[in-house]
Specification:
By secondary structure, the chain is an alpha/beta fold. The chain is built from 13 helices and 4 strands.
Length: about 280
C-alpha cells in the first residue's frame, strides 16, 4: 500500500510539470522518427570499394562502386563505409570483408560465377529497425536516470527521511519509485517502438513492439536505480548514466555491427542491453 502511494504521488508530481513530462515522451519519439527518416533517405544501393579498374564492375546492379585504396580498407570496413572491397588481381578478383570465412568464400564464388546479388552483400548488416531499437535503448537509459534521480532530490530534501519515520518501511519508498519509473519508461519505449514500426513496417514482426518496451523498461530502471542509490548528487548520476549508455551502445553494435568487431569484443557485446534490443527485434 505504501509503495502504491509513493508511485501515485510521483505520478501527480510529474503531471503538474506537464512540459517536462511531454519532453520525456517527445525525445524518444523524435529520435526514432529522425533515425527512420534518415534511413529512408539513404540510397538503397550497396556501397562497394573498388581497387582496380571500375569498368570491370559496371555491370553489378544495385551496387554503388567507389574507388578506394589499400591503406584505408580496414577502417572503411570497420566503420561501415563499404559492405566489402573488391580487389582486382592478376588471378581474378579478391573479396576483402569483415564477414566470417564461409560468408566471404560464398561472395567470392558468386562473383566468380557472375551471380553476385544484393542478398550476399547484405550479409552481416543490421536492419534499420534494429539500429533504431539500439539507439532507443541508449536514449531511454539516460532519460530513465533523469526520472529516477528525483529519488536523490527527495533524499536531500528530507522527504525520504520523513516517510521512513512515519511508516518504518524504507523498501516501500524505493519500490514505489521503481514502479513509477518503470511504467513511465515502458510508455516512452512503446511510443518509440510504434514509430519505428510505422516507418519500417516490413522489416520485422509485431511481437517485439510489446516485448522490447518491457525489456528496456526493466533493464534501464534497474541500472538507473543502482546509479541513483550509489550517487551523491543528481548530476553525478546523470553523467554516469550517459557515460555507461554510450559505452554499452558501442559494445552492443549501435555504431559498428557486432559481426565487424574483433572476436573478443563480439563475446563482450552480450552484456550490452543494446545488443539484446536488436536481437529481440530480429527474432520477434
Amino acid at each position: 500500500m505504501e509503495s502504491y502511494l509513493v508511485m501515485k504521488n510521483n505520478v501527480k508530481r510529474a503531471w503538474h510539470n506537464k512540459k517536462f513530462l511531454v519532453l520525456l515522451f517527445l525525445l524518444p519519439v523524435v529520435l526514432c522518427l529522425s533515425a527512420g527518416l534518415i534511413n529512408q533517405a539513404e540510397q538503397h544501393a550497396y556501397r562497394v570499394g573498388i581497387i582496380g579498374d571500375q569498368e570491370n564492375f559496371k555491370d553489378l546492379s544495385g551496387v554503388e562502386a567507389e574507388e578506394t585504396d589499400a591503406f584505408h580498407i580496414s577502417s572503411d570496413l570497420a566503420m561501415g563505409v563499404y559492405q566489402f572491397v573488391l580487389i582486382e588481381t592478376g588471378e581474378g578478383v579478391r573479396v576483402v570483408s569483415n564477414l566470417p570465412k564461409y560468408e566471404q568464400e560464398k561472395l567470392e564464388s558468386a562473383l566468380a560465377n557472375n551471380e553476385l546479388s544484393l542478398s550476399e552483400m547484405k550479409a552481416g548488416n543490421t536492419t534499420k529497425t534494429e539500429r533504431g531499437a539500439a539507439f532507443l535503448a541508449m536514449t531511454l537509459m539516460i532519460l530513465t536516470t533523469v526520472s529516477m534521480s528525483k529519488l536523490i532530490h527527495d533524499r536531500g530534501a528530507g522527504l525520504y527521511q520523513r516517510f521512513c519515520m512515519v511508516t518504518y518501511k524504507k523498501g516501500a519508498y524505493h519500490l514505489g519509485y521503481i514502479l513509477y519509473v518503470m511504467i513511465l519508461t515502458y510508455l516512452q519505449a512503446f511510443a518509440g517502438c510504434f514509430v519505428l514500426k510505422l516507418i519500417n513496417p516490413d522489416e520485422s514482426g509485431m511481437a517485439w513492439i510489446f516485448l522490447l518496451p518491457l525489456f528496456i523498461s526493466a533493464i534501464t530502471t534497474i541500472i538507473s536505480y543502482i546509479l541513483c542509490a550509489t550517487s551523491q548528487s543528481e548530476v553525478q548520476a546523470n553523467i554516469s548514466s550517459s557515460a555507461i549508455s554510450i559505452v554499452l551502445a558501442l559494445l552492443g553494435g549501435s555504431f559498428v555491427a557486432v559481426e565487424k568487431m574483433p572476436l573478443l569484443l563480439q563475446h563482450i557485446s552480450v552484456i550490452s542491453p543494446m545488443y539484446w534490443a536488436m536481437q529481440i527485434v530480429a527474432r520477434f
